[in-house]
Write a structure and sequence with these properties.
Layout: H1 9-81
């Protein structure tokens, strides 16, 4: 003779909720890990872009300074050659 267990909605719902909760936790932890990997990659890229921009700005400032010095020396040369007697 086989014995049958009486079906219980309460037990069934509790088991389903436990499985669902475990599944949700796995899903959210995977999402969190993926988001962290993505954010770390973005932060590295943003840091690299900022560093590149700083290097470009520094180089641009050096070029501007060199041009300004060159222009000043040319002007000094031109003014030095002028006849200032009136």
């Amino acid at each position: 003779m086989t014995s049958y267990r009486k079906f219980s909605f309460k037990d069934n719902n509790a088991a389903w909720k436990a499985r669902r909760q475990a599944s949700n936790e796995r899903f959210y932890s995977a999402q969190y890990t993926a988001a962290n990997i993505y954010n770390v990659g973005n932060l590295k890229a943003a840091g690299q872009v900022q560093l590149t921009m700083q290097q470009m700005t520094a180089r641009f400032q050096q070029e501007l300074s060199a041009k300004a010095e060159e222009r000043a020396s040319k002007l000094d040369e031109l003014y030095g050659g002028l006849d200032k007697t009136v």
